[in-house]
Write a structure and sequence with these properties.
The protein has a domain at 202-223 and 258-412 and 447-505: tm_1862 like domain (pyruvate-formate lyase- activating enzyme, Alpha-Beta Horseshoe), CATH 3.80.30.20. It has 22 helices and 15 strands. The chain has helices spanning 13-17, 31-42, 52-55, 59-69, 85-88, 90-103, 114-118, 120-127, 138-146, 154-157, 184-187, 260-274, 290-302, 323-331, 346-350, 359-371, 389-402, 419-427, 455-470, 473-483, 485-496, 502-505; strands at 5-8, 47-50, 73-78, 109-113, 131-133, 161-165, 170-173, 218-221, 224-225, 256-257, 278-281, 310-315, 334-342, 375-382, 406-411. A hairpin with a 4-residue loop joins strand 6 and strand 7 (170-173).
């Protein structure tokens, strides 16, 4: 039967991660495809989800599969493992859209995602798609579905749309902004697991350290949507801005929650029907609303699910003050907490609007997590605008002092839709020549320079810091003691995979 709508996540693993993509990276269920598909199912549309990455399809095979399904509308979801990854998946989206339109010019393609929302006109030009969503998507897709056969109505009836029409591919914007969805539980219930190849997904290697290094089965879910913060380097707000908030740097009131009982019902289904153990709570900020977190954790514990799952979540340092809450989280099977610390320097963090905590706060939060046996996945950034060699070395020293169970260390890049991107354009800072250059692991990766350091100096420091930390006997000894020899092997294999850098080869 011909589906009304096909949601596709173009696969970009190989281009993003180089050799790490073969076995070391996670394979994530397509969160936004699930959410958007569930919204349209509620509206009465027939939907399918195509996940080429999970199915191991080549780019050409994914186009062939989409053509075979013959939907009325294709929605290309530009999504990665995290919100910022939307930009680095653009090359895959461009290839898919261009190839599909060459095969089936008669079937419209809509592109959604954080990057397209920031640069809708440019996305239309680069992908050859027919339409781009300028908001978060559900309302736009629903209105488009109702008028798919009458393009003359799109500008007046379909909110949040940027589109081309006619022989000259003239670009138009619809007259209205799309409203965000607030009744998430009823209108966008998620689920849709039966539409996905559940046996193909695998967790991050480090996530599975607390599960005997068994990375399958795996699932990722949302319990909240959006973020109340506006760090200048982050593009999480891109799809949520409306009206006046569309301007760079504008804040959007985007933070919403699913009903906790609904969330736990989904977790229970994943455990009992799909034998899922590893779960990523993908909320940009899970540890924020105390009553929401407590309700979820208490229900998980009451249903006896806490001992059956190995979950991880995100938090900020300034949300990790309630140790009783952390105790509840651990009892509910949350064994990892990803925390964005970014820099040891308060001055450096202040320059990117993330200075709501002190150095003392950082160490206290880490110690609270440790006391509750919750592992720390610490996120740091080198090359923030005020960084110099001294501040980056101080941050590296701090990393060794904290000794997190896992370290994610990045260079700063200016993602479209962020304050940093606006500043880069205004000041003439060098940006990558292609969207793949925004990927932290890509060959053509080009981070921002700082006020004191070149991009090459920042990248060299980051790559050397990565090797220094993961190759250190102190870290590997800690991993061996806490997780066993299998985890050490995983770390050593990762360290041995070389990441070639065009910037450093030149």
């Amino acid at each position: 039967m011909r589906p009304d709508i096909l949601f596709v996540n173009p696969s970009a693993q190989a281009g993003i991660y180089q050799g790490l993509a073969d076995s070391l990276t996670a394979i994530e269920p397509p969160l936004w495809s699930r959410l958007l598909a569930s919204y349209m199912m509620v509206k009465g549309a027939s939907v399918e989800i195509l996940d080429p990455e999970a199915l191991g399809m080549t780019a050409e095979e994914s186009v062939d599969a989409a053509v075979t399904l013959n939907p009325r509308l294709v929605v290309a979801v530009v999504q990665g493992h995290q919100p910022s990854a939307s930009t680095q998946t653009m090359p895959a989206a461009m290839y898919f859209c261009q190839r599909f339109k060459a095969e089936r010019e008669d079937i419209p393609i809509l592109v959604v995602g954080g990057h397209p929302a920031a640069l809708p006109e440019r996305t239309l030009e680069e992908t050859g798609a027919d339409l781009v969503c300028t908001g978060e998507g559900p309302v736009t897709i629903s209105a488009l579905y109702q008028t798919i056969e009458t393009p003359a109505l799109w500008d007046s009836v379909v909110p949040g749309l940027c589109f081309t029409h006619g022989q000259g591919r003239n670009i138009y914007r619809s007259r209205h902004y799309a409203e965000n969805i607030w009744n998430l539980t009823e209108e966008m219930p998620g689920g849709m697991w039966d539409k996905l190849p559940m046996d193909r997904y695998r967790a991050h290697g480090w996530h599975a350290f607390t599960n005997g290094c068994e990375r399958k089965p795996y699932a990722s879910i949302y319990t909240t949507l959006g973020c109340p913060y506006s760090c200048s380097f982050c593009n999480i707000q891109n799809p949520f801005r409306q009206g006046d908030f569309l301007k760079y740097g504008g804040k959007a009131n985007s933070y919403r929650m699913w009903n906790p009982t609904h969330v736990v019902n989904e977790i229970q289904q994943l455990v009992e029907k799909y034998n899922v153990i590893n779960i990523k709570i993908a909320d940009e900020m899970f540890v924020l609303n105390r009553s929401h977190v407590l309700n979820i954790c208490d229900q998980i514990t009451e249903r006896g699910l806490g001992d059956k799952i190995n979950a991880w979540c995100y938090a900020r340092i300034d949300t990790l003050k309630d140790e009783r809450l952390m105790e509840k989280m651990r009892a509910a099977g949350i064994r990892w907490c990803g925390v964005g610390i970014e820099s040891m320097s308060e001055h450096v963090r202040d320059g990117v609007d993330k200075n709501d905590f002190t150095i003392e706060d950082i160490f206290k939060a880490c110690e609270r997590l440790r006391r509750q046996d919750i592992c720390l996945a610490a996120n740091f950034m080198f090359g923030l605008p005020d960084d110099d060699e001294k501040s980056m070395n101080e941050t590296l020293d701090m990393i060794f002092d904290i000794m997190p169970e896992w370290l994610n260390v990045y260079c700063t890049v200016a993602y479209p839709g962020t304050v940093l991107y606006r500043q880069a354009l205004e000041n003439g800072w060098e940006l990558p020549d292609s969207w793949s250059g925004y990927s932290h692991h890509a060959y053509d990766y080009l981070p921002l320079r700082t006020r004191h350091l070149t991009a090459a100096e920042v990248l060299r420091f980051r790559d050397e810091a990565f090797q220094k930390f993961y190759g250190s006997p102190s870290y590997q000894s800690r991993v061996l003691t806490k997780f066993g020899p299998g985890a050490v092997v995983e770390v050593q294999e990762m360290v041995r995979v070389p990441l070639r850098r065009k910037l450093l080869d030149d």
